[in-house]
Design goal:
Elements: H1 6-55, E1 60-62, E2 70-80, E3 86-96, E4 98-103, E5 106-111, E6 116-121, E7 129-139, E8 145-154, E9 159-163, E10 169-170, E11 192-195, E12 208-211, H2 226-291, H3 298-324, H4 331-347, E13 352-357, H5 368-388, E14 393-400, E15 404-411, H6 427-437, E16 441-446, E17 452-459, H7 467-470
Helix pairs in contact: 2-3, 4-5, 5-6
């Protein structure tokens, strides 16, 4: 291996040794210098922060007497001028040993390490007007004190500083609701200054700064306000009282309805047993007296008329008893009675009665006003058919459809022309009024030579209309061949 020449050795050391020499010089000389510069910069930054934190603080204040395990309540009020607003507000506080901080009665913070200053951003909590600061401090042992500062910057470039000094008030322990009290009573003593910044025992202070997030105002929705809750409670109370009143009324009405049903049954029984028996006895006496007279006697003819009138009166009395009797307030009983009446009524004529009734009609409730007015309307239709139709057959149809009851009286007689009918008779007007009283309607279809059809429809689950409302309710009346008139004439008026 050839030996390196002196110049070659120098080139080798220059190429390989200089980088290592630079590293050694950096760690031995330059790195300590850079470390000291960084340490000085960090120390200056912390010092600047502590200086800014303590620049707007006041003095250490407390009660006139200090003892261990002591609670001291300090109070201060201030005003934000009207016509402006706060652009930034920073609150700084610490208490030896712990505290609870209130602003306008709202607790916004707590602390237990007096060596640390706590910063609160209260910009959003300070609208124009009067505000109250309240601090409840606690001393564990030895010295105690509160140091405080509130820096407020307004939009008009003005600055307001609230610091801890002897203008603060000490609140007695017996005072209630003191955190939101806008003014201090005269018996609240002024706070006592117990030390200044960096004085013993707080010379090595502060040790740190703690910054809290910005505080926002509490949003109170309208349903969280007292007036809304009071209104809601009042409405609920009134609703409950109204429901109780309705229940009482329903109970009283139900009891009265029960008594009414009992009384109706009693009246129907008394009419049937007393008046019915006397009318029957009167007819028997007339028949006995009639049988004892000669056949050509005028008195016998008069007695015969009296007996016939008594029989008619007895049938009318049966109708009254049926209408009054509460045991007959069913749909099935109504259909049965109407069918029997139609057969009995047409039995004395040459007209044949045909029945078309829905099978198995249920015994549901059918109130007295409804069944009475409907029966009288059907009776009027049967009477008109017997007197004027000259028909050989009359069809009586009873059926239900869509919670409604329909009764149809149809004959195959000569019919009539409503346009030619005179307005002197009021048979159809009576039927229209009766249907109006119970919330129903009827339809009349008739032409000369084509018979007549009268159809009644009433609701099964609808209470009857009052009389004053029935007069204002428009009734459904249809007459084939003529528009509905204001007063519909009776079909028998065509023959009068």
């Amino acid at each position: 291996m050839p030996r390196l020449q002196p110049k070659s050795r120098f080139n080798f050391l220059t190429r390989r040794g200089l980088p290592w020499l630079a590293v050694i010089l950096w760690f031995s000389i330059l790195f300590p210098i850079a470390g000291r510069a960084a340490a000085e910069t960090s120390t200056n930054t912390v010092a600047t922060l502590f200086s800014e934190a303590t620049n707007h603080l006041g003095m250490w204040i407390w009660d006139a007497k200090t003892f261990d395990k002591q609670t001291c309540r300090l109070w201060k009020s201030f005003t934000i001028p009207s016509g402006t607003s706060v652009s930034h507000a920073t609150l700084r506080i610490t208490v030896d040993n712990g505290y609870r901080l209130f602003l306008d009665g709202r607790e916004i913070g707590r602390g237990s390490d007096w060596r640390t200053i706590t910063e609160y951003d209260v910009t959003w909590l300070l609208p124009p007007g009067r505000h109250v600061l309240a601090v409840e401090g606690f001393n564990d042992r030895l010295e105690a004190g509160l140091i405080f500062g509130l820096e407020i910057q307004l939009l008009d470039q003005r600055t307001i500083d609230i610091v801890s000094d002897n203008t603060w008030r000490v609140v007695p322990g017996t005072q209630r609701d003191w955190t939101a009290k806008k003014s201090a009573p005269p018996d609240w003593p002024n706070a006592t200054v117990v030390g200044v910044m960096h004085q013993h025992p707080w010379e090595n202070w502060p040790y740190g700064i703690s910054t809290e997030p910005p505080l926002r105002p509490i949003i109170v929705h309208f349903w969280q306000t007292g007036w809304f809750q009071l209104t809601l409670v009042t409405i609920c109370t009134l609703a409950v009282l109204f429901c109780l009143w309705l229940m009482t009324q329903l109970a009283a009405q139900s009891k009265a309805q029960g008594f009414l049903q009992i009384e109706r049954a009693r009246i129907a029984r008394d009419i049937h047993d007393d008046l019915g028996a006397r009318l029957t006895h009167l007819v028997l006496l007339g028949e006995v007296a009639q049988s004892e007279l000669p056949g050509d006697s005028g008195t016998r003819a008069q007695l015969n008329q009296i007996c016939e009138k008594a029989r008619d009166l007895s049938h009318a009395l049966d109708e009254v008893v049926w209408a009054v009797n509460s045991r007959r307030d069913t749909l099935r009983d109504f259909a049965t009675y109407v069918c029997k009446y139609a057969q009995f009524f047409l039995n004395s004529t040459s007209i044949r009665c045909r029945l078309d009734v829905e099978p198995e009609i249920p015994p549901v409730t059918f109130d007295l006003p409804v069944r009475r007015n409907l029966f009288l309307a059907v009776k009027e239709a049967l009477n008109n058919a017997a007197k004027h139709s000259e028909a050989s057959e009359v069809f009586l149809r009873i059926y239900r459809h869509n919670q409604k009851l329909t009764v149809v009286v149809e004959d195959n007689g000569r019919g009539f022309d409503p346009a030619q009918a005179a307005a002197a008779r009021n048979g159809m007007t009576n039927m229209m009024q009766r249907m109006g009283e119970i919330g129903g309607f009827f339809t009349v279809v008739s032409q000369p030579g084509s018979g007549c059809r009268v159809e009644f429809t009433v609701p099964l689950n609808h209470s009857p209309y009052p009389m004053w409302f029935a007069r204002r309710r428009r009734l459904h009346v249809e007459i084939e061949g003529a528009p509905p008139p204001a007063v519909v004439p009776s079909p028998d008026s065509a023959n009068s």
